[in-house]
Amino acid sequence: MGENKTMIAYDTRGGTTEEYAKAINSVLTDEFKMQTDLVNLKKACNPDLTQYQNVIVGAGIKIFRMHREGAKFLEKKNFEGKNVGIFLSSLVSRDEAIKKYVDVILRKNTTLKLIAVEVFGGKNENIRKNQPRYDRYRKSQRVDPQNRGALTKLTIHHNFQSTKI
Fold first, then answer.
1. What class does CATH assign to 5-153?
2. Hey, which end of the chain has fewer CB within 10 Å, N or C?
């Protein structure tokens, strides 16, 4: 098993969750020199976890549901002995998203022991076309590309470092 190898698995529909996964990947590889693999769960729905000590899973929320492949991966995979982090891209508040989605997953998969959870702003493409793009994001937690690295360091990497990976 890779001592510091990290899988960043994600399920995206509109591309927002993929953007966050790539930003997390960039911070972990460029700034912290961690070995990472990005895995799109639509293309590899059942990846092997044996070579990873750390697993970060991202999924979007749409129409009050977590994207299917991300939810299935979290519900059914055996995460025994892994450091696991979850990030969601959602239009609902952090506390509400954790209660509605993450807590449900934790009840279904008892091998899942989280060390990090974060909720980033989602995107709503159903808003009128003449409205500025930035208004389509939940403003309270929207993360622009320049700030993604700093937010990632505070939320994901800090929690993994505190577990001595």
1. alpha beta
2. N
Residue 109 CA, distance from chain mean position? 17
pTM score, whole prediction = 0.75
Longest dimension (CA), the chain: 51
pLDDT digits (tens, 9 = 90+) for 109-119: 989 888 888 88
Question: In the chain, where are the structural domains located?
Answer: 5-153
